[in-house]
């Protein structure tokens, strides 16, 4: 019985979220790094553009998944007659996205802006390795 009591705790742990402040902090750790170091870890951006003389790298990612569902039903029968009533809670498809915009100045990461699902942005953004080279 005790084993079953821990299932709700495990279910909640699987759904943990990342606060936006945590994502901000992870993004800020990249400031000052050479843009090549960022691209080595993040890969090739989906788009590059120039805004007011600054280079911008734009990374767009999305993830689709199935949401868990719970079915509840009541049934009964007698003889040759059987009836049931049921419903399903939750379920379906879920789509999360993350857009990260990297502002580059003098070949270094100057600023990173992000928008989207904090957990996905957190997962997609690796921690930089060494200290930035000045």
General description of the model:
- The chain contains five helices and six strands.
- It is α+β, with helices and mostly antiparallel strands.
- It has a four-stranded antiparallel beta sheet with strand order 1-2-5-6. It has a two-stranded antiparallel ribbon with strand order 3-4.
- It is elongated and about 80 Å long.
- 10% of the residues are buried.
Topology:
Elements lengths: L1 H4 L1 H8 L5 H9 L6 H8 L4 E5 L2 E13 L2 E10 L2 E10 L2 E13 L2 E9 L1 H7 L10
Antiparallel strand pairs: 1-2, 2-5, 3-4, 5-6
Characteristics:
alpha+beta, 4-stranded antiparallel β-sheet, 27% helix, 134 residues, elongated, 6 strands
Strand order in space, largest sheet: 1-2-5-6
Q: What structural class do helix, strand and pairing data support?
A: alpha+beta
The assembly state of the depicted protein chains is single chain
Major sheet description: 4 strands, antiparallel
Calculate Rg over CA atoms: 23 Å
How helix-rich are the residues, as a percent range? 25-40%
The coarse silhouette is elongated
State the end-to-end distance.
59 Å
**How large is the count of helical segments?**
5
- The number of E-state strands comes to 6
Listing every helix as H and every strand as E from the N terminus to the C terminus, the arrangement reads HHHHEEEEEEH
Strand content: 35-45%
Question: Runs with pLDDT <50, length 5+?
Answer: 4-14
Quick check: average pLDDT? Answer: 80
